[in-house]
Design a protein that fits this description.
The structure holds two protein chains of two kinds. Chain A is an all-alpha fold. Chain A has 16 helices and two strands. In chain A, strand 1 and strand 2 form a beta hairpin. The longest helix of chain A has 34 residues. In chain B, the strands form two sheets. A two-stranded antiparallel sheet of chain B has the order 1-2. A two-stranded antiparallel sheet of chain B has the order 3-4. Chain B starts with a helix and ends with a helix. The chains are: A mainly alpha, B mainly alpha. At the A-B interface, helix 1, helix 2, helix 3, helix 6 and helix 7 of A face helix 6, helix 7, helix 8, helix 9 and helix 11 of B.
Chain lengths: 381, 420
């Protein structure tokens, strides 16, 4: 090492120039590799778009986005992808409904309620959930969950509604109860007893509401287990780790000072969480939701295997008990047949779909990035 | 067997034939009469009456003949249906020629299938479509009803009572499942081609992704000046991380196969390249984190001793960051092994022999994730091979979880080292 140092000290002009050039060359080599790997994203955009444009040139935009007839193999072929877009939206929405309440409450538990030791065990476990291959989830959805749903649909639905609506309603009860007591405080001399009445009443109302819904759901019979509901639940579970870990990070980032300040003002733990920490980290939680949506929308195997792949709009549109079809599943399923006739609309329409997916996830990514950046600035970090 | 039944049908048939003969004889007699009347110039009315009578008798004889024939055909039907059902359950009878397909050379190899086939022996299925508005209703009739009073009647009870002893498979640990090739399209044998294909694809992806990812991370951490360019690069990386996996698959098809023709058909090479793009962001990010986690003092000491920047990176920073980088690599290996969508169009086929290493450059391979999909949706005998499906899923999940476990342990060791 000292040898190099000495050489550096007594280098001639030519040698020093040579070294500078070699450093420059080395750096530009590194830059080249880096940009190659990062610019892969441009390659992807370019090549997807290159094969998507012929479709729009041949068939135009109107049919693709507004028609409900999807018969790419018919003659004349029809490329109305509206049901497929709606199917994608429906399962994504379903996944959000499953993953977000569960995920956020899990994140709150992890960051504020559970002791540190439990958190250290639970967090890797949730991350393992993210590591399981999507085809394994798809297998589970198709072979295990679909028959279960078909045979015991009502029971599963009603327990599911407790799991999903429970946390939301609990939160609502606390918030609404608080609002009411706040309002009453000015009019009634003894607000404490008012609170003691209002909270149980609201809680019982919520419980009755939940009970009514779940008993109604208990009677439902599901004719086919491969439907939007099945896929939504599984996608929700798949998106859960993302939602949990990103929103837990956001809750942690709210910081100790904020929590201690809230406690110092006399707030209880529940009040601190609901009124201080969640509002402070709401943008981070939003980013978590967006990332969860991206995970759900881009998922292929589960929807391909267990959604039923029927390209029609469910009736009514929110009926999750009917089979649907998504963009990703259509791409995966139709390419095998379209591949033989490279150059036809049937091939290019799949690239058009891929481009829609790509554009959507790009926008979502940017939005989440901006949100995270802004929240960091707001929290002063 | 069935003698009583056969005797009964034979009797019936004989009676029918006798009736037929009688009718025929009568018809002939009538014909004669009619002819005689014609010759003698009898009344027209009488002749017509005789002729219609003759036709009627002929028709009746025809119907009787038909009945006798159909009796002939239906006589063996319930028996043959039973024989077929029993063959499904136990395999071909002793002394019979062995079928070509291996799956038909034995009876049911799994207990759940045995129960299904037993049910098919015990009950006959019929569909009732009498209500045209609703879907057909399945009616199950006990098969024993057709054999009441025959010698076969006790057979059904015996079967029901002893099926457990006759067919219950022994549970054994069949570890060769992983290293055997499949026989008779996955109904017997193991999953070695799939496992090997997954290994090839994963390692191939690593060969491309590790150098690119680590170099990019080194550049971003050590050389690049923070500025527009770098934040732009970072946006690109996070966008790449957000691209849906199926889009990677389409890109692989459009670019590697259709544009630069890296191989004539799907190949492991094209699949590996596609997968490497997919895991690149993960590797870049984790390597960056690992490099940033190296204490500043190391770098400053190296620079202070007179080492150049490159020298510092190679001899001080990279070795210190290696465990962290490896953790990221191991995690992305798990990701690459489990991804299906990118290899559908670029590398995976449903059936294939294990590849030699040089064949990976231009040949497609079966791979665990793709074949799980294929076996449980597109296989001709989906229900018969549930064991293989579960086995494959278990193998894949085990591989991925094992890799993740290694990563978690490595991370724990690193954090202990950094703390201590």
């Amino acid at each position: 090492m000292s040898k190099t140092a000495n050489m550096n000290l007594i280098m001639s002009d030519a040698a020093s120039r040579r070294q500078r050039i070699s450093i420059l060359l080395g750096q530009s080599f590194l830059f080249l590799i880096t940009s190659l790997s990062t610019f892969a994203v441009f390659f992807i955009f370019y090549f997807i778009l290159k094969d998507a444009i012929p479709f729009f040139k041949l068939e135009g935009f109107r049919e693709f986005f507004t028609s409900t007839h999807w018969y790419p193999s018919g003659s004349p072929a029809e490329f109305g992808a509206l049901p497929i877009f709606i199917g994608t939206g429906l399962v994504t929405l379903g996944a959000v409904v499953v993953a977000v309440p569960l995920g956020i409450s899990a994140a709150v538990c992890l960051s504020d309620l559970l002791p540190f030791k439990v958190r250290q065990i639970v967090k890797p476990l949730i991350e393992v959930l993210a590591a399981i291959p999507s085809v394994a989830y798809g297998f589970f959805a198709l072979v295990v969950f679909a028959p279960l749903l078909q045979n015991h649909g009502g029971v599963i639905l009603s327990t599911g509604i407790w799991l999903v609506l429970g946390p939301i309603l609990a939160l609502l009860v606390i918030v609404i109860g608080d609002l009411i007591t706040e309002k009453l405080r000015e009019k009634i001399p003894n607000p404490k007893t008012a609170g003691a009445i209002i909270f149980p009443v609201l809680g019982i109302l919520a419980l009755i509401f939940l009970y009514r819904i779940s008993t109604n759901l208990l009677g439902i019979e599901i004719s086919s287990g491969t439907n939007a509901l099945n896929v939504s639940i599984i996608l929700g579970i798949m998106a859960l780790p993302t939602v949990v870990s990103v929103s837990e990070d956001a809750l942690q980032a709210a910081g100790r000072e904020l929590r201690e300040g809230s406690y110092a003002l006399g707030a209880t733990r529940a009040e601190t969480i609901i009124k201080t920490i969640i509002p402070a980290s709401v943008s981070g939680i939003l980013a978590a939701v967006i990332l969860g949506v991206m995970r759900a929308i881009g998922e292929t195997m589960v929807v391909w295997m267990a959604s039923g792949n029927a390209s029609r709009i469910p009736e009514p549109w929110y009926n999750v008990l009917q089979p649907i079809r998504t963009l990703t599943a259509t791409i995966a399923g139709d390419m095998g047949e379209a591949d033989h006739v490279t150059g036809s609309s049937r091939f290019h329409v799949l690239f058009a779909m891929a481009f829609c997916l790509l554009a959507f996830s790009f926008i979502m990514n940017l939005v989440s990035e901006i949100i995270v950046k802004r929240s960091r600035r707001k929290l002063g970090k | 067997m069935l003698e009583a039944f056969e005797a009964e049908t034979a009797e019936l048939k004989a009676a029918l034939e006798a009736q037929e003969d009688e009718k025929k004889k009568l018809a002939k007699a009538l014909k004669k009469q009619a002819r005689a009347l014609k010759r003698e110039g009898g009344s027209e009315e009488e002749i017509a009456r005789l002729e219609t009578e003759e036709d009627r008798l002929k028709d009746e004889a025809k119907i009787l003949k038909e009945q006798a024939r159909s009796l002939d055909e239906t006589r063996d039907e319930p028996y043959e249906a039973l024989v077929d059902a029993v063959k499904e359950l136990f395999g071909p009878m002793p002394g019979q020629k062995k079928p070509v397909l291996i799956r038909q050379q034995y009876g049911q190899t799994r207990w759940d299938r045995t129960l299904v086939k037993l049910h098919e022996v015990m009950f006959e299925e019929e569909w009732d479509y009498s209500n045209p508005d609703a879907m057909g209703v399945l009616i199950e009739k006990p098969r024993i009803e057709k054999f009441r009073g025959t010698e076969l009647e006790p057979f059904f009870q015996y079967l029901e009572e002893h099926i457990d002893d006759m067919m219950r498979p022994k549970t054994t640990f069949y570890w060769q499942f992983i290293t055997d090739t499949s026989k008779d399209s996955h109904i017997f044998g193991g999953i070695w081609p799939e496992v090997l294909g997954t290994i090839y694809l994963t390692l191939g992806a690593m060969i491309f992704a590790i150098p690119m990812g680590v170099i990019a991370a080194i550049y971003l951490c050590e050389y690049a000046q923070e500025g527009r360019m770098v934040s732009f690069l970072r946006i690109c990386i996070s966008t790449l991380a957000g691209v849906p996996s199926i889009v990677f698959g389409l890109f692989g098809l459009a670019f590697f196969l259709n544009t630069i023709h890296i191989s004539d058909s799907k190949s492991v090479l094209a699949g590996s390249l596609t997968l490497s793009l997919l895991i690149l962001p993960t590797i870049i990010r984790s390597s960056e984190e690992a490099i940033l986690a190296v204490p500043r003092a190391y770098k400053e000491a190296a620079l202070g001793l007179g080492a150049g920047r490159w020298h510092t990176v190679m001899t001080v920073i990279l070795p210190a960051a290696l465990p962290g980088i490896l953790t990221g690599v191991v995690i992305s290996m798990g990701r690459a092994a489990g991804e299906t969508a990118p290899i559908i169009f670029t590398a995976a086929v449903s059936v294939g022999a294990p590849l030699k290493i040089w064949e990976t450059l231009n040949q497609p391979t079966p791979a665990l994730p793709w074949n799980i999909y294929n076996l449980c949706t597109e296989h001709e005998a989906v229900d018969e091979i549930r064991h293989v499906q579960y086995g494959m899923v278990f193998t894949l999940v085990a591989i991925v979880l094992l890799l993740n476990l290694v990563a978690i342990m490595m991370r724990a060791r690193i954090s202990k080292k950094l703390r201590g």
